[in-house]
Design goal:
The protein has one domain (about 5-100): HPT domain (Four Helix Bundle (Hemerythrin (Met), subunit A), Up-down Bundle), CATH 1.20.120. Helices cover about 65% and strands about 10% of the residues. The chain is built from four helices and two strands.
Length: about 100
């Protein structure tokens, strides 16, 4: 069993997180498809979205990986794009969300 990555998220987001994580898997699949086509513009758009959305939901590591992926796409580094996409997928496999009460 891989190590778990515990992410604490505000319980107000509990309805959104499962869909968010599912969409990130779709995004990563799209990255792999774009790599095969060498479509760095598409990879850059997806990476930019991952970078922005990750932090919004409390997944700061995802934001950093998205930033790195965006850079790899910008310099057309196919190997780095593939490695980072695999890293993101592994992260999603390991993440465990713990919902915390809202701080009001």
């Amino acid at each position: 069993m891989p190590d778990r990555v515990i992410i604490e998220v505000d319980e107000d987001l509990s309805d959104l997180i499962p869909g968010f994580l599912a969409h990130k898997r779709v995004d990563i699949d799209s990255v792999f498809e774009a790599v095969a086509r060498r479509d760095y513009a598409a990879i850059g758009r997806i990476a930019h979205r991952i970078k922005g959305e990750g932090g919004s939901y409390g997944f700061d590591s995802m934001t950093e990986m998205g930033r790195s992926l965006e850079h790899a796409a910008a310099i057309r580094d196919n190997g780095a794009v593939t490695t980072l996409a695999r890293q993101l997928l592994r992260y999603l496999d390991q993440v465990e969300v713990v919902f915390q009460p809202s701080k009001e």
